[in-house]
Amino acid sequence: MKKIILFTVLSALALTGCNEDKFLEEKALDFNSASNSYNTKADFDAAVTELYFLTREEFYTTYDRTTDLSKVADMWITADPLQSNVTADFSPSGAIAKFYWDENYKLIAQANTVISRLASATGLTDEQKKEFEAKGRFFRALGYRTLVLLYGDVPLQTEEVTTPKTDYTRESKDKVWAQVIEDLEFAVANLPEINAVRDGEISKPAANMLLSEVYLATGANDKAASAASAVINNPNLALMTQRFGSQAKEDGDVFYDLFRPNNQNRASGNTEGIWVIQFETNVEGGGNNTSHFFWNPGSFWGERFFAPQVDKFQIIAPNGTNIQLFNWPIGDMTGGRGIGTHYAVDHLYRGIWEDDFDDMRNSEYNWPRRFKIHRPDAMKDFPELAAALADGYFDLENPRLPEGYSMTTGFDGGVAATTQLPNRFMCGYSTKMTTPFHHPDAQYQNKATYQLAGTGGKTYADQYFFRLAEAYLLRAEAYVKQNKNAEAAADINVLRTRAQGKPVTADQMNIDFILDERLRELVCEEKRRLTLARTGKLAERIKKYNPYFSAQYSADKKDYDAHFDLFPIPLSAIQANKDGVLEQNPGY
């Protein structure tokens, strides 16, 4: 009887069989895996956090890539002449081409994962799903915006890739832009309002800012103006016009206040910041760390790159003695631990201010050109020099050197630095990149003299990705392109009024004027190469304003050519795409 029962059971099992795939499938019961990590709100919050991290990594915290999108433009000379090699910088096998390709496709891949996993998530409401999709689509649009402006036609992928794919092809810019616009219009409709999100999070106005920019890139100028207007007219936003924040009782002005530590977020009373990249100091995940030097992940090294290294600057007496007036690094208006690898071209330093040098954005607090001398005793044996500099300051615009005295800025990498001002060791600079007199306490070697430790060079303030002032500039650009110059001038004058500058007129309005106004307002904030690429002005303005990219100064003796307006498709991507063809950009 027992044999009959056993045979019956075995027969039943044999007849019904089993699903081997289901039977062998591993179930993650006590740890997160790809199969169970996208279900709850907490899961998707964690996934979106990675999108913020990747954005910060691309634009701010990768040390040797931090300045790529501003230095090859119409603003900065990079270190000393005879060091530029455009051909090497833009090689298909070089670091620049590979970095921005890889970083943006990482951002897009993560965004696609968030979007694709929402359909199967049972722990979210329908409203939560819409909001997370809006966040994913915002960041996907951001990635493709950057890729198109840097590379032109690029592969378009809008779904999560779960198996190896090696047959990509480049899609037309028009098709990619259409996807970007679709994503951003969805984001505008479904992201929360700015007063409903935490500091550092994207919101409806952030999506409208990016959408306005993309509309401009595609010629939809009326829509660009409308998107910018939605930001400008938002009741939760307003330009800051009065002193505020952490240093409101110290010397300065309201434009200076915008960039002081702890002043960027809405929690500080700032109604101008729209999307602020967070760099809390010595907080886990916050980025800035006062105890590490090179390659510290998470830090923004703006001070190091954009402020001068003043100790290299010396006065040469008639008898040949070198007189050093400044110590370094000092956390005052001389620029902290800057090394001046990027200093202003003449157009940025003087040209854009010629008609109104007293514009607040060019004030001694925002563009210092007059530095307090640290070592007055160094002049004790040179009474005529001491008398000339008796006020205790060295003024770049009026050096006041007695007859027979000259200037040197030492040596840089074995190459004699230029004695013309400005140069990397003695230059005016944007204090957006520094925190004068307010570095973190742990950063001071001697706080009484503001002597900094060797770990300095970072910018200890949150960074604006979008600020309300730019919405006026975007709308003014849209108006100029529609021949509405009076309306454009009115928008520019809103910013001029805050800066206590001279008003402009309709007949001054053109794209180049708007680009100059963006320099006055957004220097060190905007990713300048992307702006010039969007407006079709990159090669023109580089050739006109940046001598660093002329054959006279370049190591490869080549001028900047218009084909460099697009990065090359990285060789690594072409080689990995073994079953498809990624055609290289012209000229490479």
- Termini Cα gap: 83 Å
Helix content: 25-40%
Strand order of the largest sheet: 4-3-8
Biggest sheet details = 3 strands, antiparallel
How many helical stretches?
20
Poorly predicted residue ranges? 1-18
Shape: globular
Please report the total strand number as a whole number.
Answer: 13
Question: How much is the radius of gyration in Å?
Answer: 28 Å
Integer average pLDDT: 91
**Strand percentage:** 5-15%
Summed up, what is this model?
This protein is mainly α and 588 residues long. It is built from 20 helices and 13 strands.
Walk me through the structure:
It contains 20 helices and 13 strands. Mean pLDDT is 91; it is low at 1-18. The protein starts with a helix and ends in a 12-residue tail after the last helix. The protein has 588 residues and is mainly alpha-helical. The strands form six sheets. A three-stranded antiparallel sheet has the order 4-3-8, with no helix packed on it.
Which helices and strands occur, and which strands form pairs?
Layout: H1 2-16, H2 20-24, H3 41-61, H4 68-71, E1 76-78, H5 86-89, H6 95-117, H7 126-151, H8 173-190, H9 204-217, H10 221-232, H11 254-257, E2 273-277, H12 302-306, E3 314-316, E4 322-324, E5 342-344, H13 346-349, E6 370-372, H14 383-388, E7 393-395, E8 406-408, E9 411-412, E10 415-416, E11 444-446, E12 451-452, E13 463-467, H15 468-481, H16 485-498, H17 511-522, H18 528-535, H19 538-545, H20 571-576
Antiparallel strand pairs: 1-5, 2-13, 3-4, 3-8, 6-7, 9-10, 11-12
Helix pairs in contact: 3-6, 3-7, 6-7, 7-8, 8-9, 9-10, 9-15, 10-15, 15-16, 15-17
